[in-house]
Every structure is written in C-alpha cells, then in structure tokens.
Design a protein that fits this description.
seven-stranded mixed sheet; 7 strands; disordered C terminus
C-alpha cells in the first residue's frame, strides 16, 4: 500500500525550499535527484532553469515505484547578469568576484519550477529583478566568513545576511529564495494538491 503521510515529493535538499513548502502547508518527502546542470550552448537563461528543473523532477520520478502516483516537485534558480548565469561560488575569490559584478547594479533572478506526474509535466518560471547597493571589499570578506554564500546561486542569500545588500526587489521574494510560491501553488492546484492544504 502506498503511504499517505505526504502529498508530493520534493526533488531538492535545499532547506529553504523545504521551509517554503511547509509555509503553505504542503506535506512532502525529500527525494534525491542528481542531474547535470551544465548550460547548453546558446541556451537562454529562461530555457536553462526550466530544463534543469524538469530534468530534476523527471530523474526523481524515475526513482519511485510505478504505483506511487504522487507528483514530484523540483526547482532551479539562476542569478543572471547581462545574460551571464552566476552559479554557486567555488571559493572566497569567486564569491567576491560575483559580488563585485552585482554591486550597485540590477540583476535578474530566474527560478524554474517543474511538477511531474506519471502522465503530465507542468512547468512555470518566476522572474525577479534585484538591485544591489555598492558593496565594500571588507563587507565581501566578512560575508564569506558567515558561510552563507557557499551554496547560493550568485553567491548570496536574500533570506539571510545577504539581505543587507538588496536596495530594491521587483518580483517574488520566495522566487529569489529558490521556490516561488505563487507559481508553485498554481502548479499544485492543477494537480489537485493545493485544495488539500487549505483545509488546515
């Protein structure tokens, strides 16, 4: 018998995505989904985040038994400056390089969301614009020592210390965190999941 303790699977180990799903009352279980996140030649940033999110969800779906029809949710976030995608920094120098690029400028944060069922695939994209204030070199070094930039696209987290750099945000705060709740809720509603969460 298929267990009923969760409604969906989350193909992400990100604690931020787990927190956001919990925020809207969705019961979920985390499932691993290792995929190649390399960008294809000439691939637009929007296409990239959509494809990677869908690949993650499909990969996780393949790990489940056939009789388990619960949806798999996955997301992928990219920080984009001048069509260049800034990934996770490799070291302190890489993190400082990214912050120098972002400082005093406006960049985009794109998050692709995918919901995969045995018979359907649905995707959505959240696009936000984030403007940073100027950042001093000593601030960059102190920020690295917090440990926060290491696993963050673009080398910063808006939900943590990185918020002090953000002068303006146009779009989705949860999308910049890594899981846009508006788009995610729409997909879950299409799958008949969200209506179950509103009875709480």
């Amino acid at each position: 018998m298929v267990a009923t303790e969760h409604q969906i699977y989350l193909a992400s180990s990100s604690p931020r995505r787990s927190e956001l799903l919990t925020q809207i009352g969705v019961r979920f279980a985390v499932i691993a989904a290792d995929t190649d996140e390399s960008r294809l030649p000439d691939e637009a940033p929007e296409d990239y985040v959509r494809r990677v999110a869908l690949d993650k969800a499909r990969m996780a779906r393949m790990r489940l038994p056939t009789e388990d029809a619960r949806p798999v949710l996955a997301a992928d976030t990219a920080v984009v400056l001048d069509q260049c995608i800034l990934g996770k920094p490799a070291d302190p120098e890489d993190a400082a390089r990214m912050l120098r690029l972002l400082a005093g400028r406006t960049h985009r944060v794109l998050t692709g969301v995918a919901l995969v069922l045995p018979t359907h695939d649905w995707t959505a994209i959240s696009a936000s614009r984030v403007t940073f204030r100027p950042i001093r070199e000593d601030e960059m070094q102190r920020y690295w020592r917090t440990g926060e930039p290491l696993d963050k696209a673009g080398g910063y987290g808006i939900q943590g210390y990185g918020a002090v750099f953000v002068a303006n945000l146009e779009g989705s705060y949860s999308g910049v965190m890594g899981l846009p709740l508006f788009e995610t809720a729409q997909l879950l509603e299409r799958a008949g999941i969200l209506s179950m969460t509103t009875d709480n």
